[in-house]
Amino acid sequence: MKVVLEQDVKGTGKKGEVVNVSDGYARNFLLPRKLATPADAAAVNAMNIQKSAAQHRKFEAGIKAREQAKKLDSAQVKVQVRLGENGKMFGTVTGKEVAAAIEEQLGLVIDKKKISLDPIRSTGEYVAKVSLFEEVKANLKVIVEEQK
Fold first, then answer.
1. Domain containing residue 80: CATH number
2. pTM for this structure?
3. Predicted local confidence at residue 147, as pLDDT
């Protein structure tokens, strides 16, 4: 019996695949648990429409990420930190602080997990690598200065 998988099933296939399974496995396990639907023309057509819609969304996200990368490559953000009496920072500058500075100064919302930078423990200029999409990355200039 041919079925369209609604979820990933270990040993059988991934979500959206049309697989050929035994009648008993389909009737007694997959169909009652709503892990699959019978592969009639309507189900296969709906699956193909969902796949093409997902591809289109992924394509649009890639275009948006490339536009953001262009903005970030030519931009710089300033992060203000407190310094002690001898000019040493309290703690380090993290991706969370850089993400907040990007949102405040550039108006772009970027997840802190997508920002990678070496530990920043003093004032100066640094480069943060921002991973926006699968193969889309940007280098952002981060200026760390004393809070006044």
1. 3.10.430.100
2. 0.69
3. 83
